[in-house]
Design a protein that fits this description.
Blueprint lengths: L3 H30 L1 E2 L3 H6 L5 E6 L2 E8 L2 E4 L5 E2 L2 H13 L1 E5 L22 E6 L4 E10 L2 E6 L6 E3 L9 H4 L3 E4 L5 E8 L4 E5 L9 E2 L4 H4 L3 H12 E3 L2 E4 L10 E7 L4 E9 L2 E10 L9 E2 L5 E5 L1 H7 L3 H4 L4
Antiparallel strand pairs: 1-6, 2-3, 2-7, 3-4, 4-5, 6-10, 7-8, 8-9, 9-10, 11-15, 11-20, 12-13, 12-17, 13-14, 16-21, 17-18, 18-19, 19-21
Helix pairs in contact: 6-7
Length: about 325
Amino acid sequence: MRNKPLIFTVLLTVVLVALALQMRGKDRVADLSSRDLLSPMQEKQLMRLERISLTRGEGQVELVLQDGEWGVASHAGFPAQRERLAALLHALRGARVVEEKTSNPAHHARLGLDVAVADSQALQVGLHTPELDFGLIYGERVGNGQLVRFADDDQVLLVNRPLSISVSPHDWLALDVIRIPMQQVATARWTHADGDTLELDKRSEGDYNLRLAGLEDEQQGGNERWINSMVLALVNLTAQNVVQRDELTLAEPMLRMQVSTWSGAELAASLHEIDGRYWLLIDSYSAPKAADDELQVQADPRWAYQIGIGQMENLDKRRADILRSP
């Protein structure tokens, strides 16, 4: 009789272990029973895409492949963000069907999968290749997954990962226009429309701080912060928007800027004010003789980049702003 509690404990432990193993087995069966959302043929077509359309409500973005580079169609093919495109394709490849739901189209509206109803927030993804066009419609989220169906099929599927992506063309623009590390900048020259000029250089290669050329160290007066912020506004430029230059009526610039690097790269840019807006043009760019992945400049002459007032104020510094009296 004394062993009854021990026997009961042992039996209970055996039952719990058996239940745990059974549940684990069910989970493994569920994993094995899930399948890729895309068929092998569809996944193969992802490598041959020529156009991608994303639509939700009134929002729409179309991406097109031109000369080996993806661009945003509504912005004359301006380069699209590679990271965002890669995330979209990764989400499509990685999606797995964990359960088949209803195939009755009468339930599509309730599940957020009817694109014909008013105020539909379903996300439509259109994928177009020379051999095959197909599309997906994403609806309501369920737990950690999302309901989805193919555009030409009524069958609703539950996939293991939701797809959340912008349908605003502006969000797809690759507006990181200039990326030149400050340590690589060797000289800079700022010339205003009235002739006021700033000549900047460094003591030696690898230095971070620029200084006014021709001044002794004691005359610099701790102006590095002002100088660096001015040059950084150009060499680390993210634009707010982009348009084709042909759309702008350009006069003489308010400011011309030149930057050279230790590796031999040379950049020339100009700043223009049009009706209270500020536009930066990359007038020329010579890449270094040796390839340098750290230097990235969107130097296509077709584009003009809109910048904000804060960016303009950082760029539009004069000698009097830099060389301050004690």
